[in-house]
Amino acid sequence: MSSVRIFRKENRLAKKLRAPGGITVDEALKRADQRLETVREKSLVALDSKIDAIARVAASRNIDGAVDAAAGAGEIFSLAGTFQLHELSQAAGSLHNLLLYGPQGEATPWDAILVHVNALRTLRRPELSGDLAARTAVVQGLRRVSERLKRTDETSAP
Question: What 3-state DSSP class applies to 104?
Answer without folding.
Answer: coil
